[in-house]
Specification:
The protein is 40% helix and 23% strand. With 258 residues, it is an alpha/beta fold. The chain has 3 domains: 76 residues, 2-Layer Sandwich (Histidine-containing Protein, Chain: A); 66 residues, 2-Layer Sandwich (Histidine-containing Protein, Chain: A), CATH 3.30.1340.30; 66 residues, Histidine-containing Protein, Chain: A (2-Layer Sandwich).
Length: 258
């Protein structure tokens, strides 16, 4: 009888381990599929050669991307997918990287700062940089959109000045009302918000926690002023796919210097 019970226990253990292995494999398959089908991968990274592998929730990214921002965006997106424990980023960048603070580097930062913002025509805006001076060209739907593009460009690190040469559409559109954002997966929303903070000089130093649930973004962390907290909420609220922002950042004013 004792031998019989041991055999049953052994069979039960094998079945249990098989079930755990099967669930782990399903999770890994879901992670790889979710990354491939994410808004970020299908929109911003569609021209890159990215291979995604997952083993027990540990994801490895390999292949090539066209620029540094794509590498960071891919990692941020995958890191926020359900079931991911860690990300081993082995992506390499094709071609030469522009030196930080160079005109090429500034132009890329400005372009991406505009692309993440659903209230400006980032994809249609031409960005030129000469000696740190940014020139914006293209057609804006209205004056508010033109002004916002200039505001975001001006807030990029190392930008000395902005010449906003964008034209206004001949038939001006009405200012867009605050509406529910386009339905975008939560991992992509979180990644875009984090990247939007990094692109803006005034928010890049903030230690901001970002999480998203059904398009609702929650911000946590400390900030030095109410103005900083308000700016964080505005930047997050302007990102593609964000339906609303819960700003739980805490204002902690720096101690006075002695």
């Amino acid at each position: 009888m004792e031998k019989y019970l041991k055999v049953l226990a052994a069979i039960g253990l094998v079945v249990s381990l098989s079930g755990i292995t099967a669930r782990a494999a399903e999770t890994d398959d879901r992670i790889v599929s979710s990354a491939k089908e994410s808004y970020v991968f299908k929109t911003y990274l569609k021209g890159d050669d990215i291979k995604t592998e997952s083993k027990d929730g540990i994801v490895t990214l390999s292949g090539t991307v066209s620029e540094e921002s794509h590498k960071a965006l891919a990692k941020e997106t995958v890191a926020n997918l359900p079931g991911v424990k860690s990300v081993d980023d082995k992506l390499t960048i094709e071609g030469e990287r522009p030196a930080e603070a160079s005109d090429g580097w500034i132009g890329t930062q400005v372009k991406w700062s505009l692309i993440y913002n659903r209230n400006v025509s980032g994809l249609a805006t031409q960005v030129l940089v000469k000696d740190g001076v940014v020139t914006l060209r293209g057609e804006a739907e209205n004056q508010a959109q033109k002004d916002l593009a200039g505001e975001y460009a001006r807030d990029v690190k190392n930008v000395k000045d902005v010449k906003n040469e964008m034209t206004i559409a001949k038939v001006p559109s009405e200012p867009k009302k605050k509406t529910i954002g386009e339905k975008i997966d939560d991992a992509s929303v979180t990644a875009q918000v984090k990247m939007a903070f990094l692109m803006r000089h005034s928010t890049s130093a903030f230690k901001t926690g970002v999480s998203t649930n059904n398009g609702v973004v929650t911000l946590t962390g400390n900030v030095a002023s109410e103005a900083g907290k308000s700016l964080s909420g505005k930047v997050a609220g302007d990102v593609n796919g964000v339906t609303s922002v819960v700003n739980n950042m805490i204002v902690v004013e720096p101690a006075p210097k002695k």
